[in-house]
Amino acid sequence: MSQEGVRLARDALADIDLVAQLRGAFSEAQSIMAQTLAEFGLTEQRYHLLLVVAAGGSDGTVQGLLARQLHCPESRISLLVHELGDAALVEALRDRPDRRRVLVRITLAGEAALSQAICVQRDALHGLIATLEVTEVTRLAELVARTYLGLDLCVSVRTPPQSKRPARKGRARLGPLPAAQTG
């Protein structure tokens, strides 16, 4: 086998290894997220519903639209809304102009639970890539683009520009520190 063939085979194995690492980290992040959601009394489906309802704003989201957005039967959405309503995370109200329609709005308790769950999810996802080197992250982005999107692109890493301003030095204190700041 030529050196080029060996290099290509090695690169292919490295890509597979990187995808395996990502899959393992993703699985771990999902597990952490599921455990955390359970602490809030949420399943993944309830969490998704809460996200969609929150995105609907203060006017609320029509229950039938929730069914379409979550790709669930309306009967399942109705049950989820009832469960989240019992937990005081959402409220369901009849639409004034059309009493047949049910509007679902997130409550303050729902916003608080959702905010905490989002923070935990962000931390879990950060943990997913925190162990990867920058070169692995760029290779992964290229691999995902090529494999799943059919795009052949090159990802480069930009470092933040250095400030052109000189560093400011602190001023010398002219007198003793006030008593409240010592000790």
Automatic annotation (TrEMBL):
Gene Ontology biological-process annotations: response to stress
Q: InterPro entries under this entry?
A: HTH_MarR-typ, MarR/SlyA-like, WH-like_DNA-bd_sf, WH_DNA-bd_sf
What region holds the HTH marR-type domain? 15-149
GO MF annotation: an example = DNA-binding transcription factor activity
Source domain of life is Bacteria
- The UniProt annotation puts the region (Disordered) at 160-183
Instruction: Please give the name of this protein.
Output: Winged helix-turn-helix transcriptional regulator
Question: Which source organism?
Answer: Candidatus Amunia macphersoniae
